[in-house]
Inverse folding.
């Protein structure tokens, strides 16, 4: 390559060059809430909304006998 030639081809006026995208692997926090349904109620709408307002996403609910297990996750802050 001739050292006097430009490295990048010229761009037309007003051309936009997008910045590079750098992918960062997300990291997660997890929360496990257990309710014994024989003794207490399941999570109600207000409790779920409060968790959601704090960034928690419900990802699974498992029942084992009279016990309900609620699993939540949220992305960690960097």
């Amino acid at each position: 390559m001739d050292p006097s030639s430009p490295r990048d081809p010229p761009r037309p006026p007003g051309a936009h060059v997008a910045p590079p995208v750098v992918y960062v692997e997300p990291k997660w926090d997890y929360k496990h809430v257990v309710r014994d349904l024989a003794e207490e109620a399941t999570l109600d709408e207000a409790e779920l909304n409060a968790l959601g307002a704090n960034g928690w996403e419900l990802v699974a609910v498992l029942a084992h006998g009279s016990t309900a297990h609620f699993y939540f996750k949220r992305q960690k802050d960097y």
Summary: The radius of gyration is 25 Å.
